[in-house]
């Protein structure tokens, strides 16, 4: 491997290497990691991680699968049918896997252990700050989507319990805004305030069980449909090439596990790029099977009439689907605090870096600042969730940011890492990799611009 010289000077903003919670940011729920100061040894040294290859596959699959699954049938409808949806996902898979491998390579080259630290070290201060801001906005938007999902599922469950026809107005305590707010204040807020999150392993288990159960239900309901379910128009081709790109945000949101992949790579017993390539390939094939199963069967069951949240398309009285709704609610209730923790950590790191102080120097005000950050974050996400009608509108916005994590930042890291190699004569492989990095950045920027503009002018301002 050519010698690499990568800028990782944190002193530009007077930053200590442990600025707030940033050193623990976005650790995988199943990964125990040591502080960076204990990891100055090489990846193959005595301080290597404890995660096996099989364990790493499970963690990456868990990080990939999530609430975005509910929007995949609608994405197939948007893309123009089953064939267009399959081709789009298969094409995206190549870039998704390559981005994960690039991040592992750059993590080794820079000796950094989280996504934003890798971007900061490899690409410099400006790109690093943009990456951290993007993570904060992405986690904020995902928290809004989680609250909307809670409201969607509660509406159906309450309708069954109250024995009222769908769409009928019930008592004030069954109002959607009241039930979302009550659930959020009783469960989500208390779980979001603590400085550390010790229940991540339970959230991981619930998320995995809920996701697989939803997929199984969607497939079973397609094979043995209920009599009252009649599909809408089954599209066979996209209305235009732009319609295909409109499905990109859901796919990017669903497959975006890149931010949490770097800690997983460094937690492996053998953190080698070649081994990691096999891990992420296997994990993405599993995720692809789950997403395709849900997307294809959900779309063929309801056609163009499918809701942005596929579970809303099923009758409220269906008990098997009601169990799926309960699983999703439990998963989201425990996933919101984790996403909030990640966003809060970025905000905390940016604030301490701006102030030029370390966490040790500012311990006295940490609790007060943490509570204030949590309350502001929680109230803003709750307020927006109460007035945004469905998760499709949120995913259309944050899906563009997910494209940045999949394409733009890995592409920039690859370009900068190759430019930093001290070789007088550049081999053909060097030019190929730099060109591929440029392709990633260009493609990611296009997807981000197109999907974000479409979300703003079509979905939000419509």
Automatic annotation (TrEMBL):
Transmembrane ranges?
A: 54-76, 82-106, 118-151, 178-193, 205-224, 244-265, 277-302, 322-343, 371-388, 394-415, 427-448
Using the UniProt record, give the first listed, main subcellular location: other
Its keywords, alphabetically, are: Amino-acid transport, Cell projection, Ion transport, Lysosome, Membrane, Sodium, Sodium transport, Transmembrane, Transmembrane helix, Transport
Catalysis: reaction(s) = L-asparagine(in) + Na(+)(in) = L-asparagine(out) + Na(+)(out); L-glutamine(in) + Na(+)(in) = L-glutamine(out) + Na(+)(out)
- Record domain Amino acid transporter transmembrane: where: 50-449
The UniProt entry, under InterPro entries, shows: AA_transpt_TM
Q: What does this protein do?
A: Symporter that selectively cotransports sodium ions and amino acids, such as L-glutamine and L-asparagine from the lysosome into the cytoplasm and may participates in mTORC1 activation. The transport activity requires an acidic lysosomal lumen.
The record's annotation in PANTHER family points to: AMINO ACID TRANSPORTER, SODIUM-COUPLED NEUTRAL AMINO ACID TRANSPORTER 7
User: What does the similarity note say?
Assistant: Belongs to the amino acid/polyamine transporter 2 family.
**Subunit structure, per the record?**
Interacts with the mTORC1 complex; this interaction mediates the recruitment of mTORC1 to the lysosome and its subsequent activation.
Name of the protein = Sodium-coupled neutral amino acid transporter 7
* Biological source species: Pongo abelii
């Amino acid at each position: 491997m050519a010698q690499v010289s990568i800028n990782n000077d944190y002193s530009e903003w007077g930053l200590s290497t442990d600025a707030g919670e940033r050193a623990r940011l976005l650790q995988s729920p199943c990964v125990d990691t040591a502080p960076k100061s204990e990891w100055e040894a090489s990846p193959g040294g005595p301080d290597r991680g404890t995660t096996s290859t099989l364990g790493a596959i499970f963690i990456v699959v868990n990080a990939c699968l999530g609430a975005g699954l509910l929007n995949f049938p609608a994405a197939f409808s948007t893309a123009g049918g089953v064939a267009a949806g399959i081709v789009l996902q298969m094409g995206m898979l190549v870039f998704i896997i390559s981005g994960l491998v690039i991040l592992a390579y750059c993590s080794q080259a820079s000796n950094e252990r989280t996504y934003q630290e890798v971007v900061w070290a490899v690409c410099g201060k400006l790109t690093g700050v943009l990456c951290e801001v993007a993570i904060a906005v992405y986690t904020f938007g995902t928290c809004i989507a989680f609250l909307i999902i809670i409201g969607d599922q509660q509406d159906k469950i309450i309708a069954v319990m109250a024995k009222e026809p769908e769409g009928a107005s019930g008592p004030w305590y069954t109002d959607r805004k009241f039930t979302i707010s009550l659930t959020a204040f009783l469960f989500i807020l208390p779980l979001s305030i603590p400085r550390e999150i010790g229940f991540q392993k339970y959230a991981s288990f619930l998320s995995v069980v809920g996701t697989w159960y939803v997929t199984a239900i969607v497939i079973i309901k397609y094979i043995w449909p209920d009599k009252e379910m009649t599909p809408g128009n089954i599209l066979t081709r996209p209305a235009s090439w732009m319609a295909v790109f409109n499905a990109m945000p859901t796919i990017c949101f669903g497959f975006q596990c890149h931010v949490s992949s770097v800690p997983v790579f460094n937690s492996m017993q053998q953190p080698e790029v070649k081994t990691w390539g096999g891990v992420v390939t296997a994990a993405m094939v599993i995720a692809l099977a789950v997403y395709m199963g849900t997307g294809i069967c959900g779309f063929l069951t309801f056609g163009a009439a499918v809701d942005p949240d596929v579970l809303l398309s099923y009758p409220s009285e269906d008990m098997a689907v009601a169990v799926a709704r309960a699983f999703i609610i439990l998963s989201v209730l425990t996933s919101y605090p984790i996403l909030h923790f990640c966003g809060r950590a970025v905000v905390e790191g940016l604030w301490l870096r701006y102030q030029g102080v370390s966490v040790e120097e500012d311990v006295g005000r940490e609790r007060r600042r943490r509570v204030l950050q949590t309350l502001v974050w929680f109230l803003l996400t709750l307020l927006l969730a109460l007035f945004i009608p469905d998760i499709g509108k949120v995913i259309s916005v944050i899906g563009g940011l997910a494209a940045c994590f999949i394409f733009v930042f890995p592409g920039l890291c690859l370009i900068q890492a190759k430019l930093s190699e001290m070789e007088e004569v550049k081999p053909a492989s060097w030019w190929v990799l730099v060109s591929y990095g440029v392709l990633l950045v260009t493609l990611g920027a296009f997807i981000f611009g197109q999907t974000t503009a479409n979300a703003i002018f079509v979905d939000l301002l419509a």
